[in-house]
Amino acid sequence: MTTTKGPMTGTAGSNDPIGRADAAGEPDGGKLTLAQILEIFAGGRLPLRFTAYDGSSAGPADAPLGIELKTPRGTTYLATGRGDLGLARAYIAGDLEVHGVHPGDPYELLKALADELVFKLPPPKLMAQVVRSIGVEHLRPIAPPPQEVPPRWRRVAEGLRHSKSRDAEAIHHHYDVSNTFYEWVLGPSMTYTCACYPTLDATLDEAQENKYRLVFEKLRLKPGDRLLDVGCGWGGMVRYAARRGVRAIGVTLSEEQTSWAQRAIADEGLSDLAEVRFGDYRDIRETGFDAVSSIGLLEHIGVKNYASYFTFLQSRLREGGLLLNHCITRPDNTSQASAKGFIDRYVFPDGELTGSGRIIREAQDVGFEVLHEENLRPHYAMTLRDWCANLVAHWDEAVAEVGLPTAKVWGLYMAGSRLAFESGGIQLHQVLAVRPDAQGGNGGLPLRPWWAA
User: Fold this and answer.
1) Hey, which residues does 433 pair with through a beta bridge?
2) Is residue 8 over pLDDT 70?
3) Burial class, 420, CB count within 10 angstroms (exposed 0-12 / middle 13-18 / buried 19+)
């Protein structure tokens, strides 16, 4: 992989990644091109083609994938953003373009970077030359794209983390994008949580229907039962249960989800059994539910609030009632829970993940008896694959609806998340638990799992 000659380059094809070195193998102090700087950090191993506005380039000339740095502002974003944040800023703002992939599904490019690119800090003398070449003006932070939310420490104006007001703002940022946009990405099911694929060739809609079937059966719901679905989204679980004679109440902090769900309930003639409310789950006053489903809510709760969360859900259940908690998890129980970088600023403000062991412990500590748990990690990778395919198929409409920067955020986020699920960096666990009575009874549950896999 070589560096070609540009306005500020030295000799192309040198074995030294900076293109120039003195007799001792140290940099000669000249100004480096942007391509040379990238090769220094990549150790000369670029899995794709890189081109920059200064005329320099690096990586295989015939590489099917490429990145193009188009503007000096993009250099500033890359130089001042920690981790993946600088790359995301430059890409979302249009200062960096990708080649060889669709912006609605840049999975192959992200996979190539993850598999082959390892950044390393150069020695101090070379690092000083890099800084001089970049220029001090590019080391001063500038305003990020408007799609980015402020850092966590600046969000205090919206309330303390995981207060009702701040949770509402976080949910609004992510879920009130556009119902029309979500219809294109999610498909007819309007289900924005991990599907469960009965076969490798099942469609997304079949897999989402199967997921609701799995939750319904795990909760042993039957006609006449009462279900509470917290964080109900567009009401998919509520409507699935109501179609089978269950009285279901759902609650969401998204106004757009609420209005969509209420129309869907009315259109299906389910208003006598199904209800979706706009509000905080903590404001539900009814008790004595036969079952509670929480599908994709725990990620927004905050790990320090798990005890109060499980205590509240337990208080809504009758004795012998069942809880099904379905959420994204980390593969261990020791990593820091808070999301950082791109995910926190552009996708899930204040989101927190922990391992399934921590979730089970917190549920047990408030009195739940955990009956079963399973990891659906491969299913979420497949779900994200299909969501990206939907976004690609409706790309022009999506851009017209929400704007190019927001559409790019979604393509980047979903493709990156698919990669994380495939590699095991994040997982998806379902935990089934029962509220036992004072004598430890579980309401006469069967001795072995009673649901179809």
Assistant:
1) 323, 370
2) no
3) buried
Query: Rounded to an integer, what distance in angstroms lies between the CA atom of residue 209 and that of residue 189?
Result: 8
Most distant pair of Cα atoms in the chain: their distance: 84
Strand partners, 230: 251, 294
Q: What is the pLDDT of residues 388-439, one digit of tens each?
A: 999 999 999 999 999 999 999 999 999 999 999 999 999 999 999 999 999 9
The closest alpha carbon to 50, from 29, 71, 36, belongs to 36
Q: Is the dihedral of CA 27, 30, 36, 42 positive or negative?
A: positive
SS3 250: strand
Segment 68-83, tens digit of pLDDT: 999 999 999 999 998 8
Q: Are 179 and 233 in contact (CB under 8 A)?
A: no
Quick one: which of 234, 188, 207 has its CA closest to 380?
207
Q: Name the H helices within 117-156.
A: 124-134
Amino acid at 124: P
Tokens of 329: 């998890």
Q: Give the integer Cα–Cα distance in Å for 155 and 151.
A: 7
Q: Which residues of 143-172 are buried (b: 16+ CB within 10 A; e: fewer)?
A: ebbebbbeeeeebeebeebbeeebbbbbbb
User: Residue 399: phi, psi to the nearest 5?
Assistant: -65, -40
| Cα dihedral 11, 14, 19, 23 sign | negative
The Cα 134–Cα 132 span in angstroms is: 6
**Strand (E) or helix (H) holding 313:** helix 306-316
SS3 344: helix
* Residue 360 identity (one-letter amino acid): I
31-45, 164-178, 217-231, 262-276: range with lowest mean pLDDT: 164-178
Q: Which helix (H) or strand (E) holds 390?
A: helix 377-393
- Rounded to whole angstroms, the Cα distance separating 144 from 279 reads 31
Which of 371, 430, 375 shows the shortest CA–CA distance to 214? 430
Against a cut of 0.85, is the pTM above it?
yes
Q: How far apart are the first and last CA of the chain?
A: 49
d(CA 95, CA 76) in angstroms, rounded, equals 10
pLDDT, tens digit, 9 for 90 and up, residues 104-148 = 999 999 999 998 877 788 899 999 999 999 999 999 999 999 999
Helix or strand holding residue 96 (H, E): strand 96-99
Report the distance separating Cα 133 and Cα 32, nearest Å: 5
The string of DSSP codes covering 44-80 is: T--SSEEEETTS-EES-TT-S-EEEE--HHHHHHHHH
